[in-house]
Every structure is written in C-alpha cells, then in structure tokens.
Amino acid sequence: TTFFKKKLTDFCMHRVLQILPTIIRSSHKAWTSYVSQTEGLLFQINGSLAIITLDRPKVLNSLSLESIRSFTKLLIACDDDPNIRVILVKGNGGKAFCSGGDIVGITNSARKGGDIHLRFFQEEYCLNHLTSALRTPYISLYNGIAMGGGIGISIHGKYRIATEDSIFAMPETAIGFHPDVGGSFFLPRLSGSLGMFLALTGYRLVGPDILHAGIATHYMKMGNISNLELKLSHVQSSDEVDNVLNTLKVGNLTDSCFFKSQTQLINYAFCAETVEEIFERLLYVKDDWSRKIFERMFLMSPTSLKVTHKSLNLGAKLTLKQCLEMESNISYNFLQTNDFFEGVRAMLLDKDKKPNWRPSTLDLISNEIVESYFRNSGHFLTFHT
Prior knowledge:
The protein is an alpha/beta fold and 385 residues long. The protein has 17 helices and eleven strands.
C-alpha cells in the first residue's frame, strides 16, 4: 500500500509540474483561489500573488533534491506569467522558513558512491542564481529559522522580510563545510567585517538584528503577514509592491544591544588577513564577549575556517555566478575529505558534538591544502539565465 501511495504521489507531482506552465498562461480567473501541492512545497495563487510555501515542517523545511527541482520549475513558470505580479516564499509549520539543505541525505549519497549529492549542489546553486534573475518581484518571508540553503533561496532576491520570529545563521563551519549558496558573494558585501564574522562563527542573528545587518530588507510583525498577503494579491506593478512593504514595515527600530556594543570589535578582529590573526585579536581584546567568540571558533573545523576565509576574500571581487561556480568546486572537494562527514556525524547524527577534525589545528593546514579546495572539480553549473 505504501509503495502504491508513493507512486501515485510521484505521478501527481510530475503531472502538476508538467502542465503548470500551460495552466498559468491560461485564463487568470481560474487562479484566484488555486492551491496545489508538489514535493515538499505548497503552491497557491491569490489574485496577482503567487505563494510558494516550503512544506517539510518535520525537518524544518529543509531542501531535498526533489523540492529544489519543483521550486525551480515553479519559479520559471510564475516568472513567465504576466498575470503574476509578485512571488512570496515562506515556510510552513510555525518554526522555520528553511533550515538548509538535506545534509544527512547528501553525505549518505556520497558515502554510498551515488550522485545525488552532486546533482543536489549543482541544481541548488542554479536555483540560487535564478532567484537573482527573476523579472517578477520576489519576496522571502523569514517566518522562523532561516539558515544555510534557506538563505540561498532568499538572499539573492529583491526583498527579504524579517519578523520577531526570525533566526538567521550560516553555521557551516561547525559541520566541516563552508558557507555556500552564494555566501561568498553576499557575506563580504555586508557592512565592515560582519560577513566574515558571521561566516566563521555561525553566529545567530535574531529579529531586528537581521534587518540591521543588511540580511533583511524589511521588518514586520507576524500579525501583519495576513494583511501583507491580502494587499500583495491586488498589486499591479513593482512600485505597488514597494508601497505595500513600506506601509506595513515596522519603522524606527532601535539598534539592538548586539549591534551597539559589538560592531567595533567585529570590525577590528575579523578584518585580519589570516584566521590565526583573528584568534590573536580576539584574545588581545580580553573581554567576556570576545572570549566567548574565541571559544566558539575554536570548536569549528580548522580547515573550514581557512577555506571560508579565503572564499569570502575572493568572493568580494567576483560576480554571483563566479562565486557559485567557485563554491561548487569547494563543495565537491569537501566531499573528498574527512571533515564534512565527521561534522555531520558529530553534530547531526550521533550528536555527541565532539568532531575529530583532520587536520586538527590551524598550524597543520598549509596554503597548499587550502588551495586544493579551490581546484576545478570538473562539475559545471548550467544557469537558467
């Protein structure tokens, strides 16, 4: 019975995605209350508003290869329809927008000699770029946890809305990986050395801090979201989208304690030319917060720290496409070594939080080792635009 249910679900999902572009281009009247479900996604049309809801709440709306493919097809179809004036993406379940990619599935595929992990990264990075190239205004609502791959499907779009429930992080160095999904592009473009700080530490930003950091473009209360969707369903132009967002956003937010008290230290420590010097500067400051950040970084994969530091410095001078191509090589090369698998084991599977990093210290990681992660993997990205 389970087998036949799965086959039926797969068939229905395939048919919805297959006929979707044709349906969208047909009479717009049929879409005023249209709702559909595909793999890990809910899709709805309300007037001129298309809503894509990430719908894997049991795994905090993490992205699978199937949901990435469905997401891509939906975006392309919506962007081709002149009757759809705005696209809104949000998460289901009340806890998360999107917690990232299906990391456990990726590492399992790599261990077993499959190719799902290769296709996952290739198609995810192409989806990341697609969100930057849409003609239709694209809004991401951070209604909960937004991390890793969840940032990749949102940060490159025009609008990102933070709420009191929003939590942002790029926690990849804690699992022996690197901030991908365009992290090497958007992080070094944040103010001062904030991006390097967020990339190396995996530090979590909450609520208004996400706006102050430049991750979000607007801040709203969750109680206003239903009103937001209603107003967006009637917009007829990009200017109207701006007006709706600016009308409903919370104004005159005071800077949080984090940004008031730590910006100077972050800019001082994380502008250093090497990871080793960042550690030295954190020790030199000698206050409680810098000590906590030092201890936090000390737990991260030393290889991840050095590779991430280099990727952000390079990414500051590259286009988004170039950054994603560079990250594709880095991701492939991480899958050929120890730390990514060990980090996933320690943090996500066994959860003992005691990863055995190899190499175990920064001084054992030569420039040649770091450079090896940037070598061409032979796996190329085919962007949609």
